[in-house]
Design a protein that fits this description.
about 150 residues; alpha/beta; 3 helices; 8 strands; globular
Length: about 150
Protein backbone atom coordinates (compact mmCIF):
# COMPACT_ATOMS: atom_id res chain seq x y z
CA UNK A 1 0.00 0.00 0.00
CA UNK A 2 1.41 3.38 -1.04
CA UNK A 3 0.66 6.75 0.50
CA UNK A 4 1.03 10.03 -1.31
CA UNK A 5 1.26 12.18 1.80
CA UNK A 6 1.34 12.05 5.57
CA UNK A 7 0.10 14.98 7.65
CA UNK A 8 -0.95 15.75 11.18
CA UNK A 9 -4.48 17.16 10.81
CA UNK A 10 -6.95 18.78 13.20
CA UNK A 11 -10.28 19.16 11.37
CA UNK A 12 -11.00 15.86 9.66
CA UNK A 13 -11.91 14.05 12.90
CA UNK A 14 -13.50 16.55 15.30
CA UNK A 15 -11.84 16.72 18.70
CA UNK A 16 -8.88 14.60 17.59
CA UNK A 17 -5.31 15.20 16.47
CA UNK A 18 -5.04 12.76 13.58
CA UNK A 19 -2.16 11.15 11.73
CA UNK A 20 -3.49 11.28 8.18
CA UNK A 21 -2.29 9.00 5.40
CA UNK A 22 -3.56 9.76 1.87
CA UNK A 23 -3.48 6.40 0.10
CA UNK A 24 -2.83 6.21 -3.64
CA UNK A 25 -4.61 3.98 -6.14
CA UNK A 26 -8.20 5.16 -5.66
CA UNK A 27 -10.48 3.51 -8.19
CA UNK A 28 -13.60 5.64 -7.62
CA UNK A 29 -12.70 8.60 -9.86
CA UNK A 30 -15.27 11.00 -8.38
CA UNK A 31 -16.16 13.96 -10.61
CA UNK A 32 -14.63 17.09 -9.10
CA UNK A 33 -12.23 15.13 -6.86
CA UNK A 34 -9.83 17.49 -5.07
CA UNK A 35 -7.07 14.83 -5.16
CA UNK A 36 -7.04 13.15 -8.60
CA UNK A 37 -3.31 12.50 -8.15
CA UNK A 38 -4.39 9.78 -5.68
CA UNK A 39 -5.91 7.81 -8.55
CA UNK A 40 -2.48 6.71 -9.78
CA UNK A 41 -1.67 3.24 -8.49
CA UNK A 42 1.56 2.82 -6.47
CA UNK A 43 2.43 6.51 -6.47
CA UNK A 44 4.11 7.95 -3.43
CA UNK A 45 5.91 6.02 -0.71
CA UNK A 46 5.42 2.40 0.27
CA UNK A 47 3.82 2.24 3.71
CA UNK A 48 5.68 -0.53 5.47
CA UNK A 49 4.89 -1.90 8.92
CA UNK A 50 8.27 -0.65 10.13
CA UNK A 51 7.64 2.90 8.89
CA UNK A 52 4.09 2.89 10.22
CA UNK A 53 5.20 1.72 13.68
CA UNK A 54 7.91 4.39 13.70
CA UNK A 55 5.32 7.10 13.00
CA UNK A 56 2.93 5.75 15.64
CA UNK A 57 5.72 5.68 18.21
CA UNK A 58 6.92 9.18 17.27
CA UNK A 59 3.47 10.71 17.84
CA UNK A 60 2.48 8.60 20.86
CA UNK A 61 0.94 10.85 23.52
CA UNK A 62 0.61 13.71 21.02
CA UNK A 63 -1.84 12.45 18.40
CA UNK A 64 -5.01 10.54 19.23
CA UNK A 65 -6.27 9.10 15.95
CA UNK A 66 -4.99 7.44 12.78
CA UNK A 67 -6.90 8.50 9.67
CA UNK A 68 -6.73 6.86 6.27
CA UNK A 69 -7.95 8.86 3.31
CA UNK A 70 -8.93 5.86 1.26
CA UNK A 71 -7.10 2.57 1.13
CA UNK A 72 -10.09 0.26 1.35
CA UNK A 73 -8.97 -1.19 -2.01
CA UNK A 74 -5.99 -2.60 -0.07
CA UNK A 75 -8.37 -4.41 2.24
CA UNK A 76 -6.04 -6.77 4.14
CA UNK A 77 -3.21 -4.26 4.49
CA UNK A 78 -5.58 -1.53 5.68
CA UNK A 79 -7.07 -3.82 8.33
CA UNK A 80 -3.57 -4.75 9.51
CA UNK A 81 -2.60 -1.06 9.87
CA UNK A 82 -5.84 -0.30 11.71
CA UNK A 83 -5.19 -3.17 14.12
CA UNK A 84 -1.67 -1.86 14.76
CA UNK A 85 -3.12 1.59 15.43
CA UNK A 86 -5.61 0.25 17.94
CA UNK A 87 -2.93 -1.86 19.61
CA UNK A 88 -1.00 1.38 20.23
CA UNK A 89 -4.15 3.01 21.69
CA UNK A 90 -5.01 5.23 18.75
CA UNK A 91 -8.59 5.77 17.62
CA UNK A 92 -9.16 5.00 13.94
CA UNK A 93 -10.96 6.63 11.04
CA UNK A 94 -11.46 5.97 7.34
CA UNK A 95 -12.56 8.50 4.75
CA UNK A 96 -14.04 6.55 1.84
CA UNK A 97 -16.05 7.50 -1.21
CA UNK A 98 -18.01 4.27 -0.86
CA UNK A 99 -21.37 4.15 0.89
CA UNK A 100 -20.53 0.91 2.71
CA UNK A 101 -17.50 -1.18 3.62
CA UNK A 102 -17.23 -4.70 5.01
CA UNK A 103 -18.19 -5.60 8.56
CA UNK A 104 -14.61 -6.71 9.21
CA UNK A 105 -13.26 -3.32 8.19
CA UNK A 106 -15.95 -1.49 10.21
CA UNK A 107 -14.95 -3.49 13.30
CA UNK A 108 -11.52 -1.81 13.21
CA UNK A 109 -12.86 1.75 12.99
CA UNK A 110 -13.89 4.36 15.54
CA UNK A 111 -15.30 6.63 12.81
CA UNK A 112 -15.98 6.43 9.09
CA UNK A 113 -16.77 9.10 6.51
CA UNK A 114 -18.75 7.59 3.65
CA UNK A 115 -20.07 8.87 0.35
CA UNK A 116 -18.72 9.78 -3.04
CA UNK A 117 -17.85 13.44 -3.59
CA UNK A 118 -20.66 15.21 -5.41
CA UNK A 119 -19.80 18.82 -6.33
CA UNK A 120 -23.50 19.75 -6.33
CA UNK A 121 -23.96 18.52 -2.74
CA UNK A 122 -20.60 19.50 -1.25
CA UNK A 123 -18.72 17.98 1.64
CA UNK A 124 -19.40 17.44 5.32
CA UNK A 125 -19.67 21.18 5.97
CA UNK A 126 -22.77 21.34 3.73
CA UNK A 127 -26.14 20.38 5.21
CA UNK A 128 -27.24 18.94 1.84
CA UNK A 129 -24.24 16.61 1.41
CA UNK A 130 -24.65 12.95 0.57
CA UNK A 131 -21.58 12.20 2.72
CA UNK A 132 -21.86 10.93 6.29
CA UNK A 133 -19.42 11.07 9.20
CA UNK A 134 -20.40 8.18 11.47
CA UNK A 135 -19.33 7.03 14.92
CA UNK A 136 -19.15 3.30 14.24
CA UNK A 137 -19.90 1.91 17.73
CA UNK A 138 -23.23 3.72 18.02
CA UNK A 139 -23.91 4.14 14.29
CA UNK A 140 -24.50 7.84 15.00
CA UNK A 141 -24.20 10.35 12.16
CA UNK A 142 -22.09 13.30 13.36
CA UNK A 143 -22.25 15.63 10.35
CA UNK A 144 -23.43 18.47 12.62
CA UNK A 145 -19.86 18.68 13.99
CA UNK A 146 -18.68 20.01 10.60
CA UNK A 147 -21.42 22.59 9.99
CA UNK A 148 -20.60 26.14 11.08
CA UNK A 149 -23.42 28.09 12.70
Amino acid sequence: MYYHSFQVVFQEVPGEISLCFSISGCTLGCTGCHSPFLWKKNSGTLLTVTLFNTILKQYSGLATCVLFMGGEWHYEELIAFLKLSKKRNYKTCLYTGKDQVSTELMSQLTWIKTGKWDPLLGGLENEKTNQKFIEVRTNTILNHLFIKN
